[in-house]
Amino acid sequence: MTGHDSTILRDTVAYFAAVVVIVPLFSRFGLGAVLGYLAAGIVIGPSLLGLVQDPESASGLAEFGIVLLLFVIGLELKPSRLWSLRRDIFGLGASQVVVCGLALTAVLMALTSLSWQAALVVGLPLGLSSTALVMQLLAEKDITNTPFGTRSFSMLLFQDLAIVPLLTIVAALSRVPPPPGLPPALDGLQTQALRIIEFTPLTIVPGWLQGLVTVVALGLLVLIGRYGLNPAFRLIGQLRVREAFAAAALLTVLGAALLMQSLGLSMALGAFVAGVMLAESPYRHALEADIEPFRGLLLGLFFVSVGMTLDLNVVRDQFGLIVLLVIAVLATKTIVIGLLARAFGTGWLRAFQMGLLLAQGGEFGFVLFAAAQQGALISGTAAQLFGAVVTLSMVLTPLLVRLASRFNPAEVARTDLDGPEAAAPQDAAARVLLVGGGRFGQGVAQMLLARGVEVIAIDNDPELIDVSRLFGNRVYFGDGRRVDILRAAGAENAQAVVLAIDGKWDVGIIQPIRDAFPDLKIVARTYDRIHLLDLLRLHPEVTAVREVFDSGVAAGRATLEELGTPPETIAAIEAEFRRRDGERLELQLCSGDQLSGAERLFRPGVAFIPEAMGEIPFAGPIDADDGAPSPQADLLVLQGEPVRA
Prior knowledge:
Blueprint: H1 3-28, H2 33-44, H3 56-75, H4 79-84, H5 86-111, H6 116-126, H7 131-140, H8 147-161, H9 163-172, H10 184-198, H11 207-239, H12 242-262, H13 267-277, H14 284-308, H15 312-317, H16 319-343, H17 348-357, H18 364-374, H19 380-404, E1 431-435, H20 439-450, E2 454-459, H21 462-470, E3 475-477, H22 483-488, E4 496-499, H23 510-516, E5 521-526, H24 529-538, E6 543-546, H25 549-562, H26 567-591, E7 606-609, E8 614-617
Parallel strand pairs: 1-2, 1-4, 2-3, 4-5, 5-6
Antiparallel strand pairs: 7-8
Helix pairs in contact: 1-2, 2-14, 3-13, 3-14, 5-6, 5-8, 5-16, 6-18, 7-8, 9-18, 11-12, 11-13, 12-13, 16-17, 16-19, 18-19, 25-26
């Protein structure tokens, strides 16, 4: 092994060791995983333990964590939902970015000696918030889908969209001189070309050409996503090779990022647009589940790399100024965002709580500070100083949000209202995951839809998905036996999952689902009696249904009707059969012997008489008119072989 390989291995071990030890501790104390990653980076970075001496070596790979984050966010944002949030996104979100950025620019000019150009390229990034941190806090409080959470998400989304123009502003103000020896006529063109190479934003002159290239690039990506990706995923899905599907998912994200980067645009923007185009695809949940492990690791690596670049010597030398700037940033953003949210209809208390939630600096600030440093707008020390401001503001946010929640008005006790035991079921709010969209699952879905229940079906047959969508059914591609697929489909917010899987599936899949979602009710389709017994012995709490049991009973009822048996007799026979079958099932479960309860089976030559609650021998079928024996009928059983009862 070469020295370079040994260094990479040592850095990787240090990264994982710090993450495994520090991140769970931060999560345990309610500070969040993001802060744990930052702390892990600080600990193993050059400023403290020095386990990793070259933090920049991991930064390139770590940036793909942000790319994957934006792709997953896009997957959750259908075009129809994006349109419904247009007022909050492009009204409140745009106002927040502009007003906060300009307000912080003024604050920096008042507190520091920065020029207006330097103050602007620092103030605008400080106006952004941490998407990862805010979304985590919303999820922890289970308020992501509330009006408060939706409005906060709308501002975060516009901030993500604003990365490209912000990077463009940084590049436009760059003080990097053109290389010496160029003809004067080429100075401007060469300068812009260097900025395209060194920075990711599009800085082509004139301005109208910037807009045209951006629109064409986005339009091309939309066309590829709408008309090219779904057929490709359908073809790969038919192969039933999980590794190929995961590779295709990564190829989609990285391909979109490469396309945008080759045109001078943000890689994250390309990934986000690709995600939005696949938001209504039946393969959305499978894509999210396959991307999630890579996203989590790379995004964690990004935050660790940010922590490693924090120079504690700068923090020590500029401690007073850093504390002053942190207070100024938090106060300014809280006030500005609170006033803007109030202007858009949020109540006063909630508006300023929203301001506190979004008051911290964001992860994209580190990218913009680095770009400003490369453009000779700020020094390396200044970039470190403002990076420390962002980090400390992120550390304080969970504490401030927890403190602000204490000011929520107390709930007033009501004695004139019925308790929860008197509440009618709210089926409209129920969500059920249906694993298997075939003939069995379709019947289950129809019953639930008739009651107003939201049904999310998952199947790994692309052809079945295409046919189902023709009838307006929501069927998504994926292996619903996997916990990550169920989680991506929303199992944490679902009330039940129906395992309508064809064949004799492995009952061992129940335990991981139960461990991951302990409150989720499980209804399972079983292949036969032996399969049912295997399932109930391990998981008696599961509601199990034999796939052909009721259809066999229905066929028996229909045959008795054709033979002229009175309806009340048929009903009594069915009830007795179900009772005996249940007793026999209990005996088999207790004894483990398949022959237990065999005496409860109906035998040839003995008829069940409901009135007498017993059995008598018969010479032939009972005639419905006079009760006298009639010539025995011949019954022909079509299709099917004798099965173990």
